Amino acid sequence: MAPSKVLAGARVVLPTGIVHDGRVIIDGPVIADAGAPGTRPAGVPGAVPADTPVTDLSGHWVVPGFVDIHNHGGGGASFTSGTAEDVLRGIHTHRLHGTTTVVASTVTGDMHGLAERAGMLSELAEQGDIAGIHFEGPFISPCRKGAHSEELLRDPDPADVRKLLDAARGRASMVTLAPELPGGLDSVRLLAEHGVIAAIGHTDATYEQTKAAIDAGATVATHLFNAMPGLGHRAPGPIAALLEDERITVELINDGTHLHPASLELAFHHAGSGRVAFITDAMDAAGFGDGRYMLGPLEVEVADGVARLVEGGSIAGSTLTLDRAFQRAVTVDRLPVEDVVAAISANPARLLGAYDRVGSLEPGKAADLVVLDADFALKGVMRGGEWVVDPQLG
Known about the structure:
The protein is built from nine helices and 21 strands.
């Protein structure tokens, strides 16, 4: 089959580095070739027939589509409540901002409601609309509950964890829990045995308890620094354990509100670019606007793009989109583009076990990509070989 699209002239970010004046050849829904133009005879993979449409992206960047493993909604729609159509609206909102792969995150609720929600979300996962389900709560510490309803929290009894996994019908990707609670370590082992990511978060664990959870199979730190004790010189707590262990990938919310730039720098310095995953932790207001919203059973006020609980004032997720996280990481935090691509695409794709399909621009993978201008503002989004946002090159 002849390639259907050629993107040429851009700086293309590959796993091996940046290719200047590069090109990406799209064959239907997949990437046929990516890299330097070169010269290939007809019939050889990467060859381009003379009549193939070419989009000139000179002066732009082409990077892999973004992968968000922690996202509660957007576009005025919640992944935790509402209809399947509402969830699809939220997914589409994030696709407009470059997130071509998204995991739908829930918040703390009663077990029956969470199980029902998991059933609905699993259908969307089966259709390919989402990449899986992340249960954030109810198995978290009341001391670090953040924007979760304390009345609905419970200890991570493995039997209850198993109920949610069963309700998700094999589509559970991750469960955030506090491992210091009764049943915590057994639940981490259960999740690891079932190939589900055990994430440490909303926790009051000590350094030693965190290390025990990692040894039991935990592999992710849920929004590192947030909803956990701070670093201490005598009681280093979970942050030190999570940063130092090569088995852990740390989630970071790079919106300028959740993290001081020095904390972001600390995480990259100690974990390295291979162990960081940028997330949004977005709620309904992402891509929608200020106002009042519900996050599970709790009311949230969004003002100037910052979401806080009406009662208590705790930060309640974010209104972040990953295109803004990317731009901030390069222009404000001064991170290398290749490191940002790893954190926003490759690393989360590996966590999901999906790196053979998404997360990088390589032949045979899904044609999911983002076009950015010289200032790293989003100018185009492609998913499965089709433009979600047509390139805006004027």
